[in-house]
Amino acid sequence: MDSTKKPLRIPPDFGTYAERHGLFEMYKRLIESLLINKPQDPLDHLTEVLKRENDDVPSVIIHGPPAAGKTSIARMVCAKLRTAYISQDTLLADDVSPLAAKAKEYIAKNEKVPTELWVDMVKTRLQLFDCIKKGWVMDGFPQSREQALALQEVGISPKHYVVLDAPDSVLIERQMGKRIDPETGGVYHTTFDYPSNAEVERRLVEPPEGCSEESMVDRLVVYHRHTQGLQSCYDKLYKAVNADQPTADVFSQVMTFLSSRQRTLAPHNPRIVLLGPTGSGKSVQAALLASKYNIVSVSSGQLVHEAIANESKIGEAIKPYVDREMLVPDNLILKILDERLSQLDCATRGWVLRGFPRTREQAENLQNEGHEPNRVFFLDVPNDSVYERLTLRSLDAVTGDRYHALYNPPRTTDIKDRSAQQPTDAEDAIRQRLSNYYAFAEEIADFYEDAQHINADQDPHTVFECVESMLVNPLPKRAQVE
User: Would you tell me how many other CB atoms lie within 10 Å of the CB of residue 439?
Assistant: First the structure.
């Protein structure tokens, strides 16, 4: 940063680097780790945390009433995400763990396993290599607010908390037909999911908790007693999914939620690029964004005209191209854009850019200059709507007001008589601009892989709501191609 330059220019890659590497979130996690663990040597502790930390892995709790299908969905999620599966049964099945042996002693005496012991078992399990490197999915635990708070006290908190919900009558019916394969642990149902293999069919037994309606009612009463307290511990991570539907549909909804990201408290400067054919409403959306969020609206065309009007050196270089109606070279456009986007207001408030880039090469050059957008929106409009929007426009030569024959007709006959169509709104000119846009639309869409496509063939404020929702919320994770 050079304070002697006016206007003040801030290197644009500062914010981009911090966002790309999640510096704010990293510092937040390090401070949390210090406060939770209270190490004797904070520096050594932070070094070890940084060496082993991998925050880009799933951490999921799947909860729900008995017979809601928690185990089936949890195992399907683990298979899809390749994460570790954790449940009370798997924790107790660890034959070499002294904690598991101690818990089994309580169970053998028909006593309740203390919450502290369960938490120690979970904490020990999550410190293993597979959970750190691949992530984890926890099935059916915690079961009460007390257990949830105990997990949070030792720093164990999921990124997503899923609750599978269904009417009690459906759950009772499911439980009465539930059968278990003792060899594989597979769950079947006498009505909805009966095994096709005769050998598996012979092995099926009733679950240990029983299948009677009375026992199921008692378990549901206990579950409902703790539901509200549990949800209050994970209210910002919570998603309820209707479990009274085919398993494939439940799994699909769960995976959609798991692909979402939590909103972060990190400072966020919007760097937005609006792309779309002529007449798609980029100027309107840019004005709405600038008005509501106090970000800087930047138009490449307007910057060109300002440079010429100011008679700057770069303006003098651009003027011959504009006078001859030729395309301004990319290096000149990039120079004025770099100068504008590096100024203090853009660096501190954010910016929304329209009119540039138009090709993949321009997008690459813009990014190489350090101006990497964190949101890219394609405003998609059919060509018929573009022609309707533009060819029916007229301009009042006296006041400069724009009118539209269908949506905003001139108010008086005098205004109508003196209003005329701009040459740029002629059908041939529009056709040429559309042709130029679509010639490069596919390649620029390939470059901006995280770009969001929005149907802009609707009311401008409806379009703005779509843009706004994708601006204030983190973008979902892209599905990885296997």
Answer: 11
**3-state SS assignment for residue 426:** coil
Structure-token pair, residue 291? 């008005």
Q: What tokens does 389 get?
A: 């929007």
d(CA 124, CA 330): 58
Kindly give, in sequence order, each residue whose CB lies less than 8 Å from that of residue 119, ignoring residues fewer than 6 positions away: 147, 150, 151, 154, 156
Q: How far apart are CA 466 and CA 452, in angstroms?
A: 10
CA distance 475 to 374: 10
Which residue type does 479 have?
Answer: A
Distance CA 22, CA 4 (A): 31
Directed axis angle between helix 23-37 and helix 13-20, to 10°? 50
Reduced to 3 states (helix: H, G, I; strand: E, B; else coil), residue 482 is coil
**Which pLDDT value is given to residue 478?**
57
Identify the pLDDT of residue 7.
54
Gyration radius from the chain CA atoms: 30
Asked whether the whole model's pTM tops 0.85, one would answer: no
Residue 167's pLDDT is: 92
Contacts of 314 by beta carbon, 8 Å cutoff, 6+ apart: 307, 332, 335, 336
Residues in the chain: 482
- 3-state SS class at 16: helix
Q: Per-block average pLDDT, block size 10, for the chain (482 residues)?
A: 53 73 81 84 86 77 91 92 92 87 90 92 91 91 93 90 92 81 76 77 76 84 91 90 91 90 74 92 93 92 89 88 86 91 86 92 90 92 90 85 84 85 86 91 91 92 92 66 42
Where do runs of H (alpha helix) occur along 38-97?
A: 42-52, 70-81, 88-92
Torsion of the alpha carbons at 215, 221, 223 and 227, rounded to the nearest 10: 170
- Residues 6 or more apart in contact with residue 122 via CB below 8 angstroms: 86, 91, 138, 141, 151, 156
On the CB side of 267, CA atoms within 13 Å amount to 12
